[in-house]
Each structure stands twice: as C-alpha cells, then as structure tokens.
Write a structure and sequence with these properties.
15 helices, 16% strand, Aspartate Aminotransferase, domain 2, alpha/beta, Aspartate Aminotransferase, domain 1, 2 domains, 16 strands, globular
C-alpha cells in the first residue's frame, strides 16, 4: 500500500501514544517502512537520520547483522515459552551476562517487557520485601522520589512520577509518595543561586529520609539525568549522597536506568560514575539494542532471600508477564551486549559526547536558548521566549513541536520534550552523523525562531 491509503487507515484506527490525535490526523507524518544503519526510510522512499534513537532505545543502528543473525538463530529453536514453571536458554545466559556487568551485589534478574513494568516490579518487590524480611520492621509503605520524575505509565510507576502534565489526571488512582526537590538548577526560586539550590536540595533530601526513615519502603531515582523532565542533569555527587543516606537508614535504593543505561551517559550504567551500587536496578529501552521489548529488574541476594521459603508460607513474588524472558528478545540482548565489546561502543559514545559538546558551543548564545544540558550522548536544548528571564513560550505556540517538524523537513527525526529539543544519537552512531544531526537541528531552530 502507498502512503495515502496507509495514512487514512492510520487516522481511522491507530491511537498513538503521547500524541494529540486531532492534530496528528492533519499532519503528513512519515510512515516508516524500513531502516538501514542509523537511518529510517518511509513509504515514499525518503531517508531520515534517526536522531532520537527510536525513542532512546536504539544502540547499534537498524538491521545490525549480528543482532539479526542472533534472532534468526533463535527462531530456528523457539520464539517464545513461558518462564512460569519453565526455563529457557537465552534468558539464563542473559541473566548471567547482566549480573557480570551490573554494579556489585546485584545477583538476581526478574524479567518483564518494558521500562514501566521494570519499575512496577521493583516497587512491589521493595514493598513485599519489608513485609517478609526476617526482622519484620515497622510499617514501610512510603516511596520517596524526585520532583519532575518520570518512571513510566503503569499506576505504580506513575505514583512515583512527578510530571503534572502526564500524571495529574490520575491523581485519585495513585498511592501516596514523598517528593524531594530535584537538584537540577536551571529553574529555581528567585534569589537563589545554583549553589544555593543544590544545597537546599541536599538538606531536604537528608531531612526527608531522616524524618520518615521508619516508613520508607524505597527511594526511587533516575541516576544523573531526569530524562523525560527535559534532560535535567544532576550535580556531581548527588546520587552518591542518596546512596549514603539510604544505606545509613536501611532504605532500599531503586535506580531506574531505563533511559540512562547501556552507554547513554558514557558508561554502561550511569550509576557507575558515582560508584553507586543500588539494591534494585531497572533496565529496558537499550537492553536489546532497540530491537524487541524486554526489561529486567536486578536485585541483591539480601532482597531476594526474603522471598524464599516453603510454598505454603506465601513468600512467593506473585507477579509476572506472559512474555517474561522472551527467548527472541533475550537473544537480541545477548548479541547487543557482545557488540559493546567488539565494536568498542563505549569509546564511541565518549567521542560522540565530546563532539556534541564542541558543536553545542556554536549555539549557546542564541537568544531563545535558555540552557543546554548534556550528559554523555544525551542533550536537552531548552527553548525560551526570553533568555534573561527564562520566560517560556506560551504552550499553544508548540515551539518544540514546530522545531521537530522543521528538523524532519531537513531529513532528521527528533522527539522534543515540550520546548526542550532532545538530541539522542545512538551510542554507536558514527561521529560524522552526529555532526549532521547537530547542524540540522541548529538550522531548524533558526527556521522557527530566527538566527
């Protein structure tokens, strides 16, 4: 079918996520038919550089021979079998590979199928852990999270989120949480310096943990970068301090590396950069190189052992998914992990980060750029109506969306977060394509806002 009838069918039947559907129906959105390397190709044959890594999950590009071959080999064996009461070879091999690469102490792997479910599992594990641990502590029913957090779209993961636009409508469905100030320093109360705000965030972090330590089930955090909040980068040492305080007060730390994991920040896992070993680690997105849905929640032996016992004791973790540990997805993940070593992906990610820093300096003084935030290969360019006052554009102007459309017209796909333009090149992308991505986005900003 050609683009026109496909677009009509899309408008008639497909409900797209995070998409204003009335506007979408009137736009000539590309219909992707193929991928090649780091490009996507639509039904009209037009090529686009994949500047958002297919929503932050692609690592090595599209149609990667090694991953394709791994999936084909697994297809010759079995495509899916349940992990409820059975095992399969790729899920066992992948669990071993993840434990070998994860921060020390994370020894057990619980599979699910997306980032939300990885976090949902972690929340339920932490909650049940306290009810079943040997010393049976006082009631532990509160989760601590950050303002502006995003951990997914299931009810539990929304409960520990903090983006009103996404989450406020579901308020009456959510369980209570405690939020602490995010340490990101761009938008802060008048009269506060960046140093003042960081100090305030650290004081509130400690006060909250000490005050509620007897009721906190876990602390949940995106390490180093709050991604869906607009690539908000935390100051050095904040994650380390969270770990110190949670360890001191016997509070499990859940680190959500769904977006930051697998090379995005320059190391395989972001928490490595502050020598933090969490009690629970949530992974998804890049785990399969961007090929197939898969997620993993890694936990320590200490937590896992609280779920052991005789069946009649009821300590089992009664939670699971039909496609838990899917063999095709696990085979893709294993091939992706091998490519990190053979293709020296982390070294390439560092080269990307360095080149992005150089290129971003070119537009740092633009009158409508309030702040440029970068951590590794993750970049957020915040567009504002007035630089000095940090005044945002009226939401109705949809400036970020217009820049994305202008970028697309120039042959590059990006996905903004409101008026924050997000550059998310795949960690294995050649540096010359990062140059193309940068130049195209800068030109699109000028198209919409002037030079």
């Amino acid at each position: 079918m050609t683009s026109t009838p496909l677009r009509s069918l899309d408008a008639a039947h497909v409900w797209h996520p995070f998409t204003p559907m009335r506007e979408h129906a009137g736009e000539a959105t590309p219909i992707i038919a193929a991928g090649e390397g780091f490009h996507l190709i639509d039904t009209d044959g037009r090529r686009y550089l994949d500047g958002s890594s297919s929503l932050w999950c692609n690592i090595h590009g599209h149609r990667v021979p090694a991953i394709d071959a791994a999936i084909r080999r697994q297809l010759d064996q079995v495509a899916h079998t349940t992990l409820l009461g059975l095992c399969n070879v790729p899920s066992i091999e992948l669990a071993k590979a993840l434990v070998e690469r994860a921060p020390a102490g994370l020894t057990r792997v619980f599979y699910s199928d997306n980032g939300s479910t990885a976090v949902e599992a972690a929340l339920k594990i932490a909650y049940q852990y306290h009810r079943q641990r040997a010393d049976r502590p006082a009631k532990r029913d509160l989760f601590v999270c950050l303002d502006g957090a995003y951990h997914g779209d299931t009810i539990g993961s929304v409960s520990v989120g903090g983006i009103d636009l996404f989450h406020s409508v579901y308020g009456s469905l959510l369980f209570a949480t405690i939020k602490v100030p995010a340490p990101a320093v761009y938008r802060r109360p008048a009269g506060m310096s960046a140093a003042d705000w960081t100090a305030h965030a650290l004081v509130e972090l400690q006060r909250t943990i000490v005050e509620h330590r007897g009721r906190i089930a876990a602390f949940v955090i995106e390490p180093l970068v709050q991604c869906a909040a607009g690539i908000l980068v935390h100051p050095p040492g904040y994650l380390r301090r969270v770990r110190e305080l949670t360890a001191e007060h016997d509070i499990p730390l859940i680190v959500d590396e769904v977006a930051t994991g697998f090379g995005r920040t320059g190391t395989l896992f972001a928490c490595e950069q502050e020598q933090v070993a969490p009690d629970l680690l949530c992974l998804s997105k890049g785990i399969t190189g961007g090929y197939l849905p898969l997620a993993a929640t890694l936990v320590t032996d200490r937590i896992y052992e609280a779920f052991l016992g005789e069946p009649a004791e009821g300590n089992t973790f009664f939670h699971g998914h039909t496609y838990t540990g899917n063999p095709l997805a696990c085979a893709a993940a294993l091939a992706s992990l091998e490519l990190f070593e053979t293709n020296r992906v982390l070294e390439n990610a560092q080269a990307i980060a360095n080149r992005l820093s150089e290129r971003l300096a070119e537009i740092a003084a633009h009158r409508n750029i309030g702040e440029i935030r970068q951590k590794g290969t993750m970049v957020g360019i915040e567009l504002v109506a007035e630089r000095r006052s940090q005044a945002p554009f009226p939401a109705a102007e949809r400036v970020g969306h217009r820049v994305a459309l202008a970028t697309r017209e120039r042959g590059v796909i990006i996905r903004p977060v409101g008026d924050v333009i997000v550059l998310m090149p795949a960690p294995a992308m050649p540096v010359e394509l990062v140059d193309e991505l940068s130049s195209t986005v800068f030109a699109a900003i000028d198209d919409v806002l002037g030079g």
